Amino acid sequence: MSDSMDLNRRSWDERASLHAASEEYEVGKFIADPRHLSQVVRFDLPRLGDISGLRAVHLQCHIGTDTLSLARLGAQMSGLDFSAQSLAQARALAQRCDQPIEYVESDVYAADTVLAPGAFDLVYTGIGALIWLPSIERWAQTVATLLKPGGRLFLREGHPMLLAVNEDYQDRLVIEYPYFERQAPMVWDSDQTYVETDTALSETVTHEWSHGLGEVVTALLRQGMQITALVEHDSIPWEALPGQMSKNSAGEWSLDKDPWRLPLSYTLQAVKAG
Predict the structure, then answer these.
(1) Which GO terms of the molecular function aspect are on file (predicted)?
(2) What's the average model confidence in pLDDT over 38-54?
């Protein structure tokens, strides 16, 4: 597992500057407009509610655009990531936006060694994060350890049903990849990242794991968390199935044909028993 994590860390280190320079992450808009929020956070504003004054941590924060958005909504933010280069970009963005955010370097499973256990009102995990973790049980342990009694988890993630679909087919939905968590990772080899860039990656191999929706819920329940909301969505922030999707009015991507066929993402909330 450590080999997989090291391999993925190198990939994210290489991607960090490319993502910060891309239009998709909107770094320039964050700097120019102190009210600007990431599209991911804007999507879930009705479910987030008032977070002003809360002590919050964003796990797997990458270059910090969602972290900064939550800080602009009034939360006292910390961000955690295992990629030093991602954190360098996150700190630079926070500094340019004059926003005090604590960033710490660690993998998720060791978060309680760099952050105070039981200190947070809110743990936030943004979309596209869980697939980089081999064990959803260990993730749930981290969430419960960091939260205060009565504290809340807020998770937006790609739906595991979507992640089981082979995106190479552009005329139909073909289930080809794991839905449930497996010990062996899915191994991918590509010199491209998911933003527009002319730069090819040298760290091309990555390892990913799927986690079924029931597995996520059950892992949280085993840690004494109470599920308070679970909403499945027919949209996702990126073109997950090229040739079969279009952007909707909210700026997310939905299936062109019969979007009711497939859940694309979900938002889950849970509270630590007090």
Answers:
(1) methyltransferase activity
(2) 96
